[in-house]
Design brief:
single chain; mainly alpha
């Protein structure tokens, strides 16, 4: 019998240590680390929400359902931690000599919640219950510190997304971004935009990999999304760099590089496939006719464009190929709203009355995520 109780002590201790390491990696460690328990919780909750947000519903209905997904999973996670610690100490206390499983459970639950209504039978179990009480307080402290950091990062992200609507419309469009700047005669202000979003992408990479629930927090407005805003800025910078006849912009190029590196780091965490070193002529989800259509709109508004459209197309592809698969994969993962050249080819959507673009086929990377 002593051998069985020894195994119970070791098993209970292993469960407790595993849960503590999971909590530390999720909340404290400032880097992207896959945590099995947290992943299982978020995937399980997502399956439930996907049943309600079935494809037959309109996007607005699905958005209302999925808006609760990340908060619900985030609040459930500490409960899973607490329940796992309670279960681990129940097994451990029984292994240390507590007479019955029922009393071991009562003693564990009483210690975790620091109620103090049950007395431990001896010194070893008293030490164990004291440790459990300290761990229970620690889990509460982690939750208290966890939520403000999550919402602080969310507010920083959404501030830039909301401000982009003024420049790029709703939904955000890279063509509209350039057109509006041209109409007001402030094309040079795009340099400040690239600089702002270069820092935004750096912050996005740090927060959305160390806090993996953040990508699933949806914007306050259903038509906004951090990933479609990122796609708009990246495509806008790519168009300015490739086809708009302006002096060469190092800031725009650095913004594109910062953007695709950030999206790749987030995609690495969620195991979204992409080619790390693509060729400049690799295929992208945008075809030449869409590019020519965008150029025609810009030219009709008087935006100065380069004469060599073939060279401009090759330059645009050379930039877009770096972020095309990760942009579409993340748009599919978070069920992003409709936006030009990003979610419009990664998710089924209810198309608004737009006549200047065609609906595209679903990208392979995004469709793989939709099937999961």
């Amino acid at each position: 019998m002593w051998a069985v109780r020894l195994v119970a002590v070791l098993a209970g201790a292993a469960v407790v240590v595993s849960v503590l390491l999971s909590a530390l990696r999720t909340v404290v460690v400032p880097r992207a680390q896959p945590v099995r328990l947290a992943r299982a919780v978020f995937l399980g909750v997502r399956r439930v929400f996907e049943l309600r947000a079935r494809p037959g519903r309109t996007y607005e209905e699905r958005d209302r359902v999925m808006a609760l997904y990340a908060p619900a999973a985030l609040l459930l996670l500490p409960g899973v931690w607490a329940a796992s610690v309670m279960a681990g100490f129940t097994v451990l206390l029984w292994g240390m000599g507590v007479d019955s499983w029922r009393y071991a459970f009562y003693l564990s639950a009483d210690s975790l919640t620091t109620l103090g209504t049950f007395a431990a039978p001896d010194l070893p179990t008293t030490v164990a219950t004291t440790v459990e009480a300290v761990l229970g307080l620690g889990l509460v402290a982690l939750l208290i510190s966890y939520l403000p950091s999550i919402y602080g990062a969310f507010q920083r992200r959404e501030l830039a997304v909301a401000m982009l609507e003024t420049r790029a419309g709703d939904p955000p469009s890279p063509v509209e971004l350039i057109l509006r700047q041209h109409r007001i005669g402030r094309m040079e202000e795009l340099e400040d935009l690239w600089e702002q979003w270069l820092g935004w992408f750096a912050d996005l990479e740090e927060t959305h990999t160390s806090q993996a629930s953040l990508p699933f927090f949806r914007s306050p407005t259903p038509t906004r999304s951090w990933i479609t805003a990122a796609g708009c800025v990246l495509d806008g910078a790519s168009l300015v760099t490739s086809v708009v006849d302006l002096p060469k912009s190092p800031r725009a190029q650095l913004c594109i590089r910062s953007g695709y590196l950030a999206l790749r780091r987030i995609s690495d965490f969620f195991q979204i496939p992409y080619e790390p070193d693509p060729r400049p002529d690799d295929p992208i989800s945008i075809d030449r006719s869409e590019f020519d259509d965008a150029c025609a709109r810009l030219a009709a508004a008087g935006v100065p464009l380069v004469e060599d459209r073939d060279g401009a197309w090759r330059a645009f592809v050379g930039w877009r190929v770096n972020y095309d698969p990760v942009l579409l994969g993340l748009a599919g993962l978070v069920m992003a709203p409709y936006a030009m050249w990003s979610s419009d080819r990664s998710l089924p959507f209810r198309r608004p009355p737009v006549t200047h673009r065609k609906r595209r086929q679903v990208a392979p990377q995004a469709s793989a995520w939709r099937r999961r």
